Amino acid sequence: MRTTTLGVTGLQVSRVAFGTWQLGGDWGPFDEDAAIAAVRRARELGVDFFDTAQAYGFGASERLLGRALRSDLVRDRDSVVIATKGGVQPDGGGRDASAAFLREGVEQSLRALDVETIDLYQVHWPDPKTPAAETAGALQEMVDEGKLRHVGVSNYDAEQMAEFAAVRPVETLQPPYHLFRRGIEAEILPYAREHGIGVLAYSPLASGLLTGRFDENTRFDEDDWRSKATAFTGDALRQNLEVVRRLSEFARARGHSVSEIAIAWVLAHVDVALVGARSTSSIESSAAAADITLSDDEVAEIERIASDGVQIEGASPEGVA
Q1: CA–CA distances in Å: residue 93 to residues 56, 96, 154
Q2: How many Cβ atoms from other residues are within 10 Å of residue 296's Cβ?
Q3: Rounded to an integer, what distance in angstroms lies between the CA atom of residue 244 and that of residue 213?
Q4: Residue 222: what pLDDT?
Q5: In this predicted model, what pLDDT tens digit does every residue of 85-112 receive, in sequence order?
Q6: Is the pLDDT of residue 133 over 50?
Q7: What is the pLDDT of residues 246-304, one digit of tens each?
Q8: Pairing of strands 12-14, 3-5
Q9: Cβ(200)–Cβ(51) under 8 Å?
Q10: Which of 56, 177, 191, 202 is flagged as catalytic?
Q11: Contact in structure between 288 and 260 (CB atoms under 8 Å)
Q12: Using an 8 Å Cβ cutoff, are 131 and 161 in contact?
């Protein structure tokens, strides 16, 4: 597994990270034992970077990840880099990056993960009600106390990162990024590069669209957020599925799956791709993408094919307004 230095954090991490939103209950039912096996298989494959969030089931995902990694954490805590996120109220309460709520959330995450220090703590969403100085100052206090090692943000734009950085550096950014969602390329990625901010992109497979497993007749469980998402219905879905079919042909000609090519394309632009998995076969396919090096011509051809697709924008799948 290839590794990279994650921006100014200095953390050396695997280029494919294991994301755990799918273990929080928003993606329908799953087998916990199979999910734990997937985490442990990821470790065998060289994945040492794991990302979760308080809002993923409000403790459920963090607890499951902590259980899955327990033997590694006990044997050699430094062998695993754990990132989590906070700043979202439960029960649809919305964003809350106030000092008091973040501190409470950090304590809850430490208990759920069963660790003494969180390697990377990220503000899940910018909170327009809380001054950036309050948010950044509170997180710096917890770094000074040893509860957190590094601090990042998720879903922030360039202006919001600059406001945060006036108090303490933004060390990492976690944005959505895939072939059907490239909005960060205009301003956000250039800002991150200019300031040495490590970028770990979530949803590199467009929440499953780029796996090649869906067709126009695919239906999702009622408690899967995709059952209500416009990206998975109508003309936009049909158009993007046609692009996926063409990308699949491109991938097969090179001995890869479409999901491997989609992740490799993301890795050609950012430091780390966050992939979700609830089975060992899923993480095996995703992890393989870290070893694919695309030529400039291949990147250009992938982007040419994807240009016929419909860009996915709009509200977050978490439903956080």
Answers
A1: 14, 8, 18
A2: 8
A3: 10
A4: 72
A5: 999 998 888 999 999 999 999 999 999 9
A6: yes
A7: 999 999 999 999 999 999 999 999 999 999 887 888 899 899 999 999 999 999 999 99
A8: antiparallel
A9: yes
A10: 56
A11: yes
A12: no
Q: What percent of the chain has pLDDT over 90?
A: 75
Taking the complete model, does pTM exceed 0.85, yes or no? yes
CB 93 within 8 A of CB 83: no
Contacts of 1 (CB under 8 A, 6+ apart): 14, 15, 16, 45, 46, 47, 48, 287, 290, 291
Residue 178 phi/psi, 5° resolution? -160, 180
* Cβ proximity of 140 and 200 under 8 Å: no
Residues pairing with 121 in the sheet: 84, 151
Q: Give the pair of three-digit tokens for residue 283.
A: 């993480």
Are 179 and 210 in contact, with CB atoms under 8 Å apart?
Answer: yes
Instruction: Please give the structure tokens belonging to residue 293.
Output: 């090096």
Active site residue 56: yes
Residue that has been written with the tokens 């609830």 in this structure: 278
Give the closest residue to 97 by CA, choosing from 135, 133, 128. 135
| CA dist., res. 156 & res. 173, Å (int) | 8
- What DSSP assignment string belongs to 37-98? HHHHHHHHTT--EEE--TTTTTTHHHHHHHHHTHHHHHH-GGG-EEEEEE-EETTTTEE---
Mean pLDDT in residue range 41-59? 94
CB of 86 closer than 8 Å to CB of 49: no
Return the sign of the alpha-carbon dihedral for residues 157, 62, 196, 304. Answer: negative
